[in-house]
Write a structure and sequence with these properties.
GO molecular function: 4 iron, 4 sulfur cluster binding; class I DNA-(apurinic or apyrimidinic site) endonuclease activity; DNA binding; DNA N-glycosylase activity; metal ion binding
Strand content: under 5%
CATH superfamily of the largest domain: Hypothetical protein, domain 2
Oligomer: single chain
Structural class: mainly alpha
Keywords: 4Fe-4S, DNA damage, DNA repair, DNA-binding, Endonuclease, Glycosidase, Hydrolase, Iron, Iron-sulfur, Lyase, Metal-binding, Nuclease
Distance between the termini: 8 Å
Protein name: Endonuclease III
Order of helices and strands: HHHHHHHHHHH
CATH topology of the largest domain: Endonuclease III, domain 1
Radius of gyration: 18 Å
Organism: Trueperella pecoris
Helix content: 55-70%
CATH architecture of the largest domain: Orthogonal Bundle
Number of domains: 2
CATH class of the largest domain: Mainly Alpha
Family: Belongs to the Nth/MutY family.
Largest sheet: none
């Protein structure tokens, strides 16, 4: 059990520096070539894995490479392409609405502000922060299941609501590294600090983690 105060600048710095050493090249694990592809892929990633999304998007983008093309799709076409991801009807509807909004409101260009992104159909703060941080270089905290779980285990927040957790983490994590630090936390959550059986014995953070055991 750590004697360092959870959420203190010392503990936060130690954890983030060790993650930086462990995952120096951490990045978004969704495959994309431009902001539009990242936006679509992130919307599709809800309730599924990045690996599965990456298996679906090549055919999707080959057929509908931009917002104009996607807005001209039929729901049946989209449903067939995203069917392997689960919740395919809802996701197809979200993509169609998203494409229409991009074309009609933004001239078929993905906006680069949080306010404009979250106004798009199917886009919440998590998706918006993924796009802002990775496509536009605007720092953002992405509270997915891994970031939420690990930061609660470390004592950085007690919030289970992603938006409330994001607000608290903004006061804990250094802003200039929000995007890359979230990637590293996600990597660690996927590889070591699992939901049901965290590998505390193999974790480089065990001595500074109040939940290790």
């Amino acid at each position: 059990m750590t004697t360092i105060t959870p959420g203190s600048p010392e503990q936060v710095s130690l954890i983030l520096s060790r993650l930086a050493q462990l995952y120096p090249d951490a990045t978004c694990e969704l495959n994309y070539a431009n902001p539009f592809e990242l936006l679509v892929a992130t919307v599709l990633s809800a309730q599924t894995t990045d690996v599965r999304v990456n298996q679906v998007t090549p055919a999707l983008f080959a057929r509908f490479p931009d917002p104009v093309a996607l807005a001209g799709a039929t729901l049946a076409e989209l449903e067939e392409l995203v069917r392997p991801l689960g919740f395919f009807r809802a996701k197809a509807k979200s993509l169609f609405g998203l494409a229409r909004a991009l074309v009609e409101v933004h001239g078929a260009v993905v906006p680069a502000t949080l306010k404009e992104l979250v106004a798009l159909p199917g886009v919440g703060r998590k998706t918006a922060n993924v796009v802002l941080g990775n496509a536009f270089g605007v720092p953002g905290i992405t509270v997915d299941t891994h970031v939420g779980r690990l930061t609660r285990r470390w004592g950085w927040t007690e919030q289970t609501d992603p938006v409330k957790a994001e607000r608290e983490l903004m006061g804990v994590m250094p802003e200039e590294n929000w995007t890359i630090d979230c990637h590293r936390i996600i990597y660690h959550g996927r590889r070591v600090c699992h939901s049901r059986s965290p590998e505390c014995g193999a974790c480089v953070l065990a001595d500074v983690c109040p939940s290790a055991g």
